Amino acid sequence: MAEDGTPLAHAAPHLCMQKVATSQAYIVVTLVGSSNPNIDSFREAVRFLNLLIDSGEVDFIEDGAFADRLISFIRVASSSSHISSRMTPDSESEMVELLFAIAAKLRQRASIPAAWFRPSFDTKSKRLSQSGLSVPKSEEFPLVYMLLEYVHRDGKVGDFARTGLLYILELAGQADKLEKWIIESELATMMVSGLGALYSQLSSKVSLSYSKDALPPILAFSDVTASDQSGDADPIFCTALQANLATFVSFLNFWQDVLDRCPSADIKATLLDHFNFLFLRPLL
User: Fold this and answer.
1) Long-range contacts of 260-265 (CB under 8 A, 24+ apart)
2) Rounded to whole angstroms, how far apart are CA atoms 15 and 233?
3) What is the largest CA-CA distance in the chain?
4) Which of 6, 114, 174, 218 has a CA positioned 20 to 30 A from the CA of residue 125?
């Protein structure tokens, strides 16, 4: 409750948040965070943006200027060597968590604000297309493409990206424009490419590397011996192989989550076609 007894959901925005919104102070913060070679400045800018999104006092998600500034900030950070070269696992996780936070907010909406989603078949973008200017899919819904850059990663970075993308795909059932855009975008192709890249990291030769005394009973009584090992094969229990296998299985599980939770039959059919023709058939 506010001091005057008004429920917080209907109370006036806090003066600090209102000042940030009207002055667009986030522009200065993000410019400092993306231009300063100190990674701590970048992390503080990410935390500041996350604070604004979670505040609930001012609806920054509906603010087109805020959306454009945040997208530009992440793009600069991802492409700028003075930031990317100093990126730590924690700072990268915080950056992707920011993208996840936006996706989580969009999931709560009846429709996706135009600040984030501007399909080319919509009025404004359609005028650009008719004038001969091509609008890249990555400019129509940049958040999706940013999340796609990290969905194949392991750890918290991959978890945030996969969950954020799943939230957006869940919205396709209530938004025909979004469903059409996803089908026409490179989402399915990029997801298959990520799966193929992870699969290529798995060793093509694996050996059961047991010592003579450690052979499992089922192998000890067979023709297999501890010396039946290929010199160029990776031991099945080596740390690198297990880590790569876990990442591949995690991304494969994400595919299954998408097929289970995406309400659009057309999107699921598109994903399965790409999986079949671009991943499965080349393997077979």
Assistant:
1) 261/166, 261/169, 261/170, 262/169, 262/170, 262/172, 262/173, 263/170, 263/172, 263/173, 263/174, 264/169, 264/172, 264/173, 264/179, 264/182
2) 64
3) 83
4) 174
Round to whole Å and give the CA distance between 267 and 172. 9
- Ramachandran class of 132: left when φ > 0, alpha when ψ lies in -120 to 50, beta otherwise: left
b (16+ CB within 10 A) / e for 53-78: bebebbebbebeebbebbbebbebbe
pTM: 0.84
Rounded Cα gap, residues 207 and 228, in angstroms: 9
Fill in the amino acid letter for 20. Answer: V
pLDDT tens-digit series, residues 112-140: 999 999 988 665 545 555 555 667 899 99
Residues in a beta bridge with 206: 234
For residue 144, pLDDT beyond 90 = yes
**Separation between Cα atoms, residue 166 and residue 119, nearest integer Å:** 19
| Residues 99/143, Cβ–Cβ less than 8 Å | yes
Q: Which of helix, strand or coil describes residue 228?
A: coil
